[in-house]
Every structure is written in structure tokens, then in C-alpha cells.
Amino acid sequence: MAIPRYDEIQLPALELLSDGNLWRPKELEKPLARKFNLTEEELNQMYDSGNKPIFYDRINWALSYLNMAGLVFKPKRGVFQINEKGIEILKTPEKILSFIKSKIENRESAKRKKTDKKIIQVTSDLTPEEALFTSFQGIKESVFREIIDTILSKSPREFEKLVVKLLQKMGYGGEIKNSGTVTQYVNDKGIDGIIKEDILGFGRIHIQAKRYARENNVPREDIQKFVGALAVAQSDKGVFITTSDFTKGAYEYTESLNSSTKIVLINGDKLAEYMYEHNLGVQTERTIELKKLDSDFWDVMQEDKN
User: Fold this and answer.
1) pLDDT the model gives residue 111
2) If you average pLDDT over every residue of the chain, what do you get?
3) I need a labelling partner for 28 at 20 to 30 A (CA). Which of 11, 42, 140, 174 fits?
């Protein structure tokens, strides 16, 4: 039979996870191949680019959507485990696809309201170029989620080191040797990292990093404490970075600060986006080249008069 689509893999994958054990995508490959009666050739069939096997890639997408729908969770990077909701929905397997679709639509709807951006849906009305762009955006957002998942699996200390590297990657500190430092782990006086903007260290950016679970937003009080720490350090520039988000009160307080103190808030979405854009912790998998006709080349040719 043909290699199944990722949505056709979702239910069989969830059924395999129903034993409650930890599963890696690679461990699901052979039992799912047997489930769909795939030949060895189909199991190993690669994309035209030759960069990865089609079936294994679709297993990963199936698991990603199960995770986004809240039917499984990732105890650690690259490992999936079913949760109570996943076990419950297996009692009515015919509802799983509509349930996942509903959850994803609600998730995207909430995100649109939050960011006030329109997300183009792939429909028959889109041109091939628009559909390609939309698919590219979907892949990027999946990588963003994986970046945050990976950060959450690391220690808070590693996160502090990471945000210092990120600001350096973004150009802060310039060519200054050892421009970024991570403060001592205990008694850091509310400052997790420092970026020197000039050789003599007259200009400094102070950093606070909070590795919080997605639902645990940073409150106004934490920003106020950071402002106090900046005052003690005699600094007027601060960057507060978190893997989650900030409460409304935190944003309002930051905007209300006088011009002598500048605080920049970077939430989990922006953190993942900056890491992606500045190639920190990610690598280019493949490059797609889009071409169009060269009008200058063709226009000089004589037209057919017939």
C-alpha cells in the first residue's frame, strides 16, 4: 500500500503509546510499518531531496500533532508518552481526527488573537508559491516549539549561558573579547548575565533569565525586582528573557518606566524566533531555490508571427 499520510498515522501511533511506556519516534517505525503493511522499499523511501525517509518524517509529524493536541507529552527531548486525555480519547477512536483538528484550530486562533497576525490557511485558493510559504511557516513554528521544549529539558544554569550567547549572536558586544559573562549562580543580586558594549565596559546590558514552563508567566513583581537590581548595578539597560511569557501587568509596568531605564522583554515565542534567525542551536537542513522566467532573456527573441 501507499505510504500513509501523517494524519492516518496518528491513531495507530497513539494506540502503541497506550501501554504508558516512553517511546521514541524511531521505536515506533517498525510496528507502524507492520500496521500499514509497508514493504522494506516503502519503509526506506526517501524524499526527492534525499534528506530523510518519508515514512519516518510523517511519524514525527503525527507525534507532533498528538503533542500539540494535548494527547501525549514529552518527558524529555525526543521521547513521547501518552497522558490521561490520550487514554480517554482511545475509547472513541473515530473522534480522534476531529478532536486534533479542533485543538489545533483553537490553538492557532488563540495565537492569532495574541499576536494580532493573520495566519494564511492552505486552501485551493492559494497559489503554489503561497502554499509553499505557508508550509514553510508551519515548519518554522514546529521548530520554534522544539527549541523551547529542548531549553526546558536543560538546567536553569545552561539557560543563563544560552541567553548570553544569543545576545552576542545578535551583535551585542560586537568584536569585544569576552564581551558576555554569566554571573555567579548563587547570590547573583538579580542579574544572570552581563554584556559589555565597549572595551572599557562603560556601557553594559544586564540580563535576567527565567526558564519557566509555558503556562507560568512572569509577573509584574519579577520585573520590579529586576529594575531594582539594575539600580544597584547602576545600569539603565536590561533584557528580561523567559521561555514562557509575561503577564499583562508586567508588560504595562515595563511600558510605564521612565526613559532613563530601558527594559526589553523577550518571551518564549520571540526567544525561539531569535535563536532560529541567528542560527543558535539550529542548522540549515536544506535550501529550496525558487526560479522565475528571465524576461530580459526571452524578450529579445523574435515572436512567432503565425
Assistant:
1) 61
2) 87
3) 140
CB 203 within 8 A of CB 196: yes
- Up-side HSE of residue 47: CA atoms within 13 Å toward CB? 8
Average pLDDT (136-165) is 91
Confidence (pTM): 0.63
Please choose, from the candidates 215, 206, 255, 207, the residue with its C-alpha nearest in 3D space to the C-alpha of residue 235: 206
Grid cell listed for 34: 507492520
C-alpha cell at 198: 565597549
pLDDT at 37 > cutoff 70: yes
Q: Can you list the domains of the chain with their CATH numbers?
A: 6-114 (1.10.10.10), 156-277 (3.40.1350.10)
Closest alpha carbon to 191 in 154, 141, 241, 261: 241
pLDDT at 122 over 70: no
Do 71 and 61 contact (CB within 8 A), yes or no?
no
- Burial track 128-157 (b if 16+ CB lie within 10 A, e otherwise): eeeeeebeeeeeebeebbbbbbbbbeeeee
Q: Are the C-beta atoms of residues 255 and 223 closer than 8 Å to each other? A: no
Residues 215-253: pLDDT tens digits? Answer: 899 999 999 999 999 999 888 899 999 999 999 999 999
Q: Are strands 193-196 and 180-182 parallel, antiparallel or unpaired?
A: antiparallel
